[in-house]
Sequence to fold (223 residues):
Amino acid sequence: MKTGRLAALLGLLLAACAPAASSAESVVAAPAARRAAQETGLKTAIFAGGCFWGVEGVFSHVKGVTSAVSGYYGGTARSARYNLVSSGITDHAEAVKVTYDPRIVRYDQLLRIFFSVVADPTLKNRQGPDVGAHYRSALVPMSEEQRAVAAAYLGQLGKARLWDAPILTRIERAQAFYPAEAYHQDFMLKNPRHGYILRWDAPKVAALKRLYPALYRDEYRPG
Fold:
């Protein structure tokens, strides 16, 4: 077996993105944002919300999303490697760069989906079974308009008190995004029977379909 392929397989076996026996995160019907994004033309935004397999998988089923790429955000180019990021020694978070058409789905609607079915905003440096700062929940706006909408929505969610604990999701400044290794891209599409996908991520896609049927598409849009 080639060294690169062996390393990839070992990475999957040893990854923190691995099956766990703890309970799944609850789904929350987040409210519509009071401040709607005013955008034209294709836009991009970065979302960090735990293992990027599920974040990418959910957004790939959203109408208007033209691309969802798993990657690393917050650290250096040299440290943007899965074995380093998953060890917790870098400043990176596992994240997904989403490209979308605001004529079909706006940034504020992506935020609503993110907080409804992707991430629990009350958890610090962890999501589901995955623990560490590289699994932090963060919004990375790529424009001043997105930043204003994100700040307004976080404030709205805080006042809504949908969760018993305070909201810990933070807005982080835009930095370089580094795509993850090829075997991480479209992981849910390529590995629908993987134990982690079945336990943690397939339920999120099902919740997206149930809560937002007008924005859900059965077709999986590869990154």
User: Anything to note?
Assistant: Residues 144-160 form the longest helix (17 residues). The CA atoms of residues 107 and 162 lie 21 Å apart. The radius of gyration is 16 Å.
